[in-house]
Design a protein that fits this description.
This protein has 375 residues and is mainly alpha-helical. The chain is 71% helix and 3% strand. The longest helix is centred in the first third of the chain and has 27 residues, at 11-37.
Length: 375
């Protein structure tokens, strides 16, 4: 079915290819401009890199998205809203990359960008819950929820942008997954835009994977977060598929977990939520002795297993025609078990749930024993 859809909608492939080429060739020029402007990340105790790296790579990603979108996509009302909002998100991030914004100024810009899609008709007007059916939302509830969702995902992507290639790779996996699911749901425009995001991130990884020569900065993180959040609303949530609600939550589960963990930690220790620290999941990998490259690959694998579970839920006909089918059910269960197993392993490895981790209890016993010996 997907191959037939791709054959009928070649703009999905063309858009991804053009986005990749534009970003590959345009990024070095953007990096050089960032150096001349002084938009450079200097190394410090709260950053992993050890040499100055230019920011503003998000401008290359923006051109890699906007050009194929204008060339290949149907610029209906929804798509115009997506592109306008993406331009605002990029501008807010670029200003922050260049001269810095106070947290409330950046948040105001994010809200402004997030408010554009509902104005152009992109908002969650209903949810389809498994076993419960369809629940319609009024514009007074659906539009604010959409803005909150978009702003939240923008910040989640910004939070995970802490290791070379991490944010771009995670967003690329999400773009690939959203493209396949949207195509299967009969949403070719959303599928093509998701594929363009995939192509742009792959092109940027040419210069951003370890050792990075340029960072995407807030301009890229906010743009990618905005794009994924908005296309999830337009291409996935606004369908009659009963499991569509869980697709973006599964695919973006790692950024969601990272943000939830960091925010909870800052609240626990009464730190400002906007404060920078080294408590993110990727920082915990580095603190355990992982190299940047290995930490990023582990996180790619984690995100990919969750994306695989989402794709399995969509494409494996385990309950076709209202009847359970043995082999497809086993296949879907295997994908789900892989995703759960990978998640449990990462939670254990990173000691996110400390009380449940025997390594933490062993360390505490050893520390207590050492104190008794020295007392």
């Amino acid at each position: 079915m997907i191959l037939h859809q791709l054959r009928d909608h070649l703009e999905v492939l063309y858009g991804a290819a053009v986005a990749l080429v534009i970003v590959v060739f345009f990024t070095p020029a953007v990096a050089g401009m960032a150096r001349r402007l002084g938009a450079v990340d200097e190394p410090d105790e709260q950053r992993v890199h050890r040499i100055p790296i230019p920011r503003l790579g998000g401008l290359a990603i923006f051109f890699g998205i906007i050009v194929p979108a204008l060339a290949f996509l149907d610029l209906d009302r929804s798509m115009r809203g997506l592109l306008v909002g993406g331009a605002i998100a990029t501008a807010v991030g670029a200003i922050d990359d260049y001269r810095g914004l106070r947290w409330w100024e950046k948040l105001a810009g994010q809200v402004l960008a997030g408010a554009i899609p509902p104005v152009f008709g992109i908002w969650v007007d209903h949810f389809t819950f498994p076993f419960l059916g369809v629940y319609d939302l009024s514009v007074w509830l659906g539009a604010p929820l959409t803005v909150v969702w978009i702003v939240a995902v923008m910040n989640m992507v910004n939070f995970i942008d802490g290791l070379d290639g991490l944010a771009a790779g995670v967003c690329g996996i999400a773009g690939f997954t959203f493209a396949l699911i949207a195509l299967s749901l009969g949403k070719p425009t959303a599928a093509a835009f998701s594929a363009i995001v995939l192509g742009a991130t792959l092109g940027f990884l040419r210069h951003n994977f370890f050792p990075a020569r340029v960072f995407m900065g807030d301009s890229g993180a906010l743009l990618l977060g905005f794009s994924l959040a908005t296309v999830a609303v337009e291409g996935l949530l606004k369908t009659a598929a009963t499991v569509a609600l869980f697709f973006p939550l599964l695919v973006l589960a790692v950024p969601i977990l990272d943000t939830g963990f960091v925010v909870a930690r800052r609240l626990k220790y009464r730190q400002p939520i906007t404060a920078r620290d080294m408590a993110h999941l990727h920082h915990r990998f580095v603190n355990l002795g992982f190299s940047q490259r290995r930490a990023v690959v582990y996180l790619y694998f984690w995100v990919a297993t969750l994306a695989g579970a989402a794709l399995g839920t969509r494409f494996i006909p385990f309950r076709e025609g209202g009847r359970w089918h043995a082999w497809p059910t086993l296949g879907a269960a295997a994908l789900g078990a892989l995703a759960v197993g990978a998640s449990v392993y990462m939670v254990y490895l990173l000691e996110i749930v400390k009380l449940a981790n025997p390594r933490v209890r062993r360390r505490r016993r050893e520390a207590a024993e050492q104190q008794r010996r020295t007392a």
